[in-house]
Amino acid sequence: AQKVTQAQTEISVVEKEDVTLDCVYETRDTTYYLFWYKQPPSGELVFLIRRNSFDEQNEISGRYSWNFQKSTSSFNFTITASQVVDSAVYFCALSSISNFGNEKLTFGTGTRLTIIP
Amino acid sequence: DTGVSQDPRHKITKRGQNVTFRCDPISEHNRLYWYRQTLGQGPEFLTYFQNEAQLEKSRLLSDRFSAERPKGSFSTLEIQRTEQGDSAMYLCASRTRGNTEAFFGQGTRLTVV
Hints:
Largest interface: A-B, 27 and 27 residues
Number of strands of chain A: 12
Number of helices of chain B: 0
Oligomer: heterodimer
Structural class of chain A: mainly beta
Radius of gyration of chain A: 14 Å
Distance between the termini of chain B: 33 Å
């Protein structure tokens, strides 16, 4: 069975501080994908990044960066110089190819990030 | 609007009533998913369609739930004899074949009173 753990339920930081959201996953599959989604109050899940299990290179996109470490089964997400617009619930998710090409996602419980102006 | 759209956005119903939700995926996406999200939790997979075929259902999808995608385009999710435990956000997502991400709609928030 697949499992994603986001131990941080809520985080509050002052604007312009850096913040890291932790994600630890469990899977028996050798090929899998990891994701981060952002859920603002409107409810829509906004895709941030997709990573496959063979690519352990860290990635940076503007103020966002991701650290994938297979040895510790972690896929952490850092926001640099946080802004009020970053306030949202962030979900880490895991998928693998099951029957019929179904890349269903297994989500963590989310981390609610509040940026204080 | 080229995103995934869901209708209605909010639904309040009395226990025991039937409800139906609609999802219109991105037009070229042949794969469609339904997820359920309860308060304070992450979304949980309910069911998966590839074109018009429903290929996988979660154990969460009791016999009161039925989903269809009759022409491989829009999908409906019906809940019969609603219970208070059905109160949740129902999210639809779609994607193309191959290594692509899923795009989510804004969801339908169901409240059973």
